């Protein structure tokens, strides 16, 4: 389907009273739905924030304006990490964010975003759509009055920015690194000190020496934050987020109020946005990586085999401990890991040999 182009205007800043007025049930007007989407991203944040707006626009276009969604950036209507509760309680209709933010609600939510050495972006889609992941997600999220769909991904992320080189496991001892969630727990067990910082706080903390290293996303988003102006040591391939999925979480009552046709349409649009976001991140990251290296003198580095082996063994310990928390988590863990094993077996004979052979002759396809 073709997208329509809509002109938008900037709204005035929301005051407390205005925000309270916005937190109400879905609006109906002449057969049209007016819904509110709250996000965990800054306004117009490249990729993640703009994809939330694209999802809303695509739903409006596909329904010929019957369903119109107003998107609120983090802290415009509710705090960034308050979107789950707002949608669960019916104060907003949809959230756009990564479900590992909700591990405090239930630890199994991490599987529907990213876990250390887990599924990449395409494998995540494989699990959700063909490995029973969506059904398990429905069961987990349904307990919080939510229906969630994957709608965005950054693809594989980077290992982070470090003020000093990481040459051995000893270099992690006492390292203050901004890294959230399960990845932080892994590094903690290797001697690092994980620190939680919101995205907008990272640059200042790194530049002032309050932290020694930080992961964020990848070249596109990282360059926009200016990390290349602080340090040149940029490590590739984030073990902790190999392909994080971003969720569109609908209030379950709102979701059930849609017709079956609209549910199918919205699900298809979310899936389309997931694929397009991966393509966009691959394109933007490739462009930005070249700029970082050629213009800013950034040095791309990889962790040694010794370090990667320690990371994956420690990650396995963390994941197995997590899986034994309760029956729901164990069931989701087993399903997720079944897909991981199947995906690894296939990629070993398909993607990996091809990618290795493709690098044998790098002059192939030179520009004419």
Features:
single chain, 368 residues, alpha/beta, D-Maltodextrin-Binding Protein, domain 2, 2 domains, six-stranded mixed beta sheet, 13 helices, 12 strands, 45% helix, disordered N terminus, metal-binding, TRAP_DctP_sf, metal ion binding, signal
Describe the structure.
The chain is an alpha/beta fold and 368 residues long. It folds into two domains: 28-155 and 242-283, Bacterial extracellular solute-binding protein, family 7 (D-Maltodextrin-Binding Protein, domain 2, 3-Layer(aba) Sandwich), CATH 3.40.190.170; 160-241 and 295-342, Periplasmic binding protein-like II (D-Maltodextrin-Binding Protein, domain 2). It is 45% helix and 14% strand. The protein is built from 13 helices and twelve strands. The chain has helices spanning 16-22, 48-62, 83-88, 121-130, 133-142, 181-189, 199-207, 219-225, 252-257, 260-294, 305-323, 327-349, 351-358, and strands at 27-29, 32-39, 67-72, 94-97, 146-153, 160-162, 176-178, 193-195, 213-214, 233-235, 245-251, 299-301. Strands 1, 2, 3, 4, 5 and 11 form a six-stranded mixed β-sheet that branches. Strand 7, helix 6 and strand 8 form a beta-alpha-beta unit. The radius of gyration is 21 Å and the shape is globular. The two termini are 34 Å apart. Keywords: Metal-binding, Signal. Pfam families: DctP. One of its GO terms (biological process) is transmembrane transport.
Quick recap of the structure?
By secondary structure, the protein is α/β, with parallel strands linked by helices. The protein has helices at 16-22, 48-62, 83-88, 121-130, 133-142, 181-189, 199-207, 219-225, 252-257, 260-294, 305-323, 327-349, 351-358; strands at 27-29, 32-39, 67-72, 94-97, 146-153, 160-162, 176-178, 193-195, 213-214, 233-235, 245-251, 299-301.
């Amino acid at each position: 389907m073709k997208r329509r182009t809509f002109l938008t205007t900037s709204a005035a800043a929301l005051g407390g009273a205005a925000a309270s007025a916005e937190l109400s049930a879905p609006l109906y007007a002449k057969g049209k739905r007016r819904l509110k989407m709250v996000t965990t991203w800054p306004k117009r944040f490249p990729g993640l924030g703009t994809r939330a707006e694209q999802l809303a626009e695509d739903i409006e276009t596909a329904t010929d304006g019957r369903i119109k969604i107003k998107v609120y950036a983090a802290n415009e209507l509710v705090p960034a990490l308050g979107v789950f509760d707002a949608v669960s309680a019916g104060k907003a209709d949809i959230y756009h964010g990564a479900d590992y933010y909700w591990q405090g609600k239930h630890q199994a939510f991490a599987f529907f975003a990213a876990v250390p050495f887990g599924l990449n972006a395409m494998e995540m889609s494989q699990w959700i759509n063909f490995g029973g992941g969506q059904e398990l997600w429905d069961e987990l999220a349904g307990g919080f009055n939510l229906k969630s769909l994957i709608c965005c991904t950054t693809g594989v992320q980077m290992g982070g920015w470090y003020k000093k080189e990481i040459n051995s496991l000893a270099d992690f001892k006492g390292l203050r690194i901004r890294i959230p969630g399960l990845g932080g727990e892994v590094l903690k067990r290797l001697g690092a000190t994980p620190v939680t910082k919101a995205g907008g706080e990272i640059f200042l903390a790194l530049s002032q020496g309050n932290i020694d290293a930080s992961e964020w996303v990848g070249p596109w988003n990282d360059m926009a934050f200016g990390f290349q102006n602080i340090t040149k040591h940029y490590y590739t391939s984030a073990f902790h987020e190999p392909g994080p999925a971003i969720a569109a979480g609908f209030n379950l009552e709102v979701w059930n109020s849609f017709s079956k046709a609209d549910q199918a349409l919205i699900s298809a649009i979310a899936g389309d946005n997931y694929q397009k976001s991966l393509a966009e991140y691959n394109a933007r990251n490739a462009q930005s990586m070249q700029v970082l290296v050629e213009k800013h003198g950034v040095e791309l580095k990889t962790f040694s085999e010794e370090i990667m082996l320690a990371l994956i063994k420690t990650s396995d310990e963390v994941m197995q401990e997590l899986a034994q928390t309760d029956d729901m988590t164990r069931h989701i863990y087993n399903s997720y890991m079944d897909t991981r094993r199947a995906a690894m077996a296939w990629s070993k004979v398909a993607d990996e040999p091809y990618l290795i052979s493709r690098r044998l002759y790098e002059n192939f396809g030179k520009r004419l």
